[in-house]
Amino acid sequence: MFEIFGVGPLTLITFLPMLGIILILLIPAGKDEQSKKASTNIYRWATVFFTFLQLVIAVVIYINFDLSLTGVNDINGMQFVEKVRWIEVEGLPMLGDLRIDYFVGIDGISAPMILLTAIICFVATFASWSIGKAVKGYFIMYLLLDLGMMGVFVSLDFFLFYLFWELMLLPMYFLIGIWGGPRKEYAAIKFFIYTLFGSLFMLLVMIALYFAVGSFNMLDMMDPSKYDPGSLLSGIGTTWRYIAFGALFIGFAIKVPTVPFHTWLPDAHVEAPTAISVILAGVLLKMGTYGMLRISWPMFPDAVYYFQWYIALIGVVSIIYGAFCALGQHKVGKRDFKKLIAYSSVSHMGFVMLGMAAMNTEGMVGAIFQMFNHGTITAMLFMIVGVVYDRTHLRGLDDFGGLANKMPIYTGVMMIAFFAAIGLPGLSGFISEVLIFLGAFQTFPVMTAISAFAIVIGAAYMLWALQKIFFGKLPDRWKGPWDPTGTKYKHDDLNGIELTALVPLAVIVIYLGINPNPITGMMTSSVNHLIELVKAGGQVAAGM
Amino acid sequence: MFSVEANFLDQLKDSIGLFLPETVLIATFLLSLILDLIFRKSRTLTGIVTAIGFVVAGICLIGQTGETAFIFSRMLVVDPFALFFKFVILLSGLIVVLMSFFSKELYETTEGVGEYFTLITGMTIGMFLLASASNLIMIYLAIETMSISSYILAGYTKEIRRASEASLKYVIFGAVSSGIMIYGMSILFGLTGTLNLFDINTFLLSNEVNMVPLMLSGLMILAGFAYKISAVPFHFWTPDVYEGAPVTISALLSVASKAAGFAVLIRFLKSAFIDPTLSSDVAWNTISSIDWQYIIAILAVVTMTVGNLVAVWQTNVKRLLAYSSIAHAGYLLMGVVVMNEIGIAAILLYFFAYMIMNLGAFYVVMLIANKTGSEELDDYQGLGHSAPVLGVCMTIFLISLTGLPPTFGFIGKLYIFSAVLDSGLIWLAVVGVLNSVVSLYYYAKVFRNMYFRGMDPPKEPMTFSYGSMILLFLLAIPTVLFGVYFTPILAWAKSSVEIFFG
Amino acid sequence: MNIGLEHYLIVGAILFSLGLFAVVTRKNAILVLMGLELILNSANINFIAFAKYGGMNIEGHVAAIFVIILAAAEAAVALAIVLNIYRNFKHVNVDEVAKLKD
After folding, report:
1. Chain B residue closest to A88 (CA)?
2. Residue A89, beta-bridge partner list
3. Which residues of A touch B440 (CB under 8 A)?
4. I need a surface site. Which of A107, B106, B256, B438 has the fewest CB within 10 A?
5. Cβ separation of B490 and A98 shorter than 8 Å?
6. Mean pLDDT, rounded, for B45-68
7. Across B36-50, average pLDDT
8. What pLDDT, on the 0 to 100 scale, is given for residue B43?
9. Residue B146: its chain C contacts at CB < 8 A?
10. What is the pTM of this model?
11. How far is CA A147 from CA A57, A142, A143, in A?
């Protein structure tokens, strides 16, 4: 393990944004136009700098990552581990000695998520270029959000995990609420209340697990032999364990989101500024499924087996319902492009649920790979909407047409994103979906067959949107240049900043479509270990 | 009958030694009263004297660490439990005195603020006595000492109509509830033949007592305490008084007098009604067959639910904070429901957190009212941009009141929920969690108005004095700091759960 | 007829009920305060009666004296506050002092 000033890479990657926050706080916003403009540029580039450093560290971690180690419940299989005693109070009444560790480390499940977070946060900075008001506050909140997300993926102590998990809520609330669209207040508070509702149940389960195990160490919580026999959650297949699993599941399912907890998502996406939509879809949604893989699955294997069919059902319902809602955006409502992508997210995250419920290597690897791919693809899609929205302040499906002639590069990039979202072979989305279908078909043949139908709907709504926006006749009002004065947009097509954001993602999507090994290879040994662990726990329960 | 014990004088001497913090406060009270008469013109002298007196009393309190003793013929108890509450009371009193120096409302609408500080000292003495009272008459005396001072303080800005209305409501509701309480005490006295809590306990252990009058008297006494902690259904005064009274006094009532109320509630239940001979694992070995735990649990649920739900509709920030303080009384009562050592430790921890964050929130309200002259939610629009420091601090305090990490309020909630789950009352924990979600909605309304609304056109930036900002940071920084590193407070709360048994 | 403990307790209970009734129904602040005095005195009667008939110690008498003293103090403060209300509102009707909404 490499260290810088005695600080490990995971601490570094998590707390780098803090340095950025302090730097931005120290630079005054300025009073007159000139200094305001200068400070805005400093804020932007400072954020670019720190997110780029994060990306560099993530790549270094990726290069040094040992593919053979398993992790999950095995401390020796965890990589880049740092463990420092953080809170220690001895002889507490009833609780005994309270010990909380600053305990971070990664395995094959979290490593792809670290990489994803670093990539998305870096490119989303460029999507933040159009933020005009209160730029200082925006980038502080942005970096705080970044910190919280990284923290969630590296934590191996439940208390730490919960701290980071909740830390994200507040910046997200302000990012939607201050810099969002017309119904921002509603969207922001809806997001806040939904997620808080879920996470408070998670808190109760966390406390109950603490009473059972006597520490907040997640690895201890995965070990049935560490459970105090008299506690509420000890034993296998008890009612309280099912209830605790259900409470945790609700907490995570709200974040994913799956039907029926998804209603906050379209509102949040529609109102959030582009960069925040990108982060929301790219990283935040993955936290729900990541939480399940990190916490629910290994800690409650008996409950996972018990509810396996229902989890798959929730996945399939999300897939179909999300797809139909996305299709419906062509006919009903405001025909909002962003809303269409939001519902397609519900559908795609449903695939992740289905793959996770399948409980075999193909399904599980497919699920994690789908998390990664959905992150990159949907990030592209939201940025693509952001490009036209910045220019016209419109994003209705019917407001455009024939953009292919006006913006050829843009159309090229968006074709990649659209086809990847549909799952066209040769692009990354195809591989993960195929893996999920292969895995899920072994366990739930009928449900998988039904969900495959969603691919057709997905192709329909995506191609329809493609046709409406990019082909056909260009409306008269868009005939001239976007910006007649030429101050903001010199060309009609993508500018340098937008290309910097979109091209890396497009490259990733294409490359992983041809060779998925760089990502799938990372997770295979961990996923196999996780499946063995869950199966072992589940079979004990089944044998009873 | 009346007799002097042999070593009475020695006991008295010891008692006076252990009564030092209170003595310091009484000296401060007298000194500030006299100084106010001599230096009529000075508007800060009594305040400074009071603050110094509080600091000295605090130093004397530190000297009492670890002491456990009966003093003044078992009228008062000195124990770590009382000590913790005395610290909370003293600290909040000190912060309120410091806050008062910056209050425009106080200095511009009254002729002199001398008596104001003197009365705060008087109230603090009453609360000190209440925290360590172990005799029904002492409890009554202490409650009245504290109440009479606070009746006047609530209406201190007497030219303002709403303040005088607040003090009228406070005095009528307060006097009636303490009247009901003393009637209950008289019945309990008749049943047991003594006024000392420990003797009541001994008597109930060894004798059969008629249940109906015992229940009745217990409920009547609880009504008196419930009034002080503003638990539903004795909360009607809270919103009116908090809205009408000067902000500083609302802050003091919401923290210090609540702390004293909880101290006496816990001591009364624990000393009088719980069997001390049985294992401390099972907290509620009540002597009689009356299920006090169930009664308190109902009280907790109703209190937090009513407080949170009504708060949602409020348009005045002081009133909103009043209902929020009712809801917090409900959360704290969950700890009383548990009542074992972890429950009491949780209450202590929560109280410390509640003190910092609630005083902070009231302080921001006061600073804003100084500039805008309004406490209405609508007038908070755009304040996050014209007064960014205040906005950030207010957000921190409100987030802490909601109980989100990484703030001190989260640690407090975590412990309360841990205590409740540990005792197996899962339904109660779920109710508490749902209430927290509701509370987010109305706390968010405050910072929503500060940040999301009123940005165009931008308001003039507000400036505040350095002194007032330093006090603000002294409240805001611990709120976050103790949220990520709470070892010292937890260790202190742990060592303070010991309640003295005779 | 022998007058025993019960009689005193009944008188106390009646006084308490009357006091509470007055507090709840009266609109005039002064009358409310008078109801309050009844409540406090009912407690006094109880204390004294228990001390006398219950064969108990002096504590009951002491308690009664304290209650009387505190009642006086409380009445003084309450009357001052009512006086202030009169200055501000020109009446002392509790129901109409309702500038603060519920």
Report:
1. B487
2. A98
3. 192-193, 196
4. B438
5. yes
6. 92
7. 87
8. 79
9. none
10. 0.94
11. 14, 9, 6
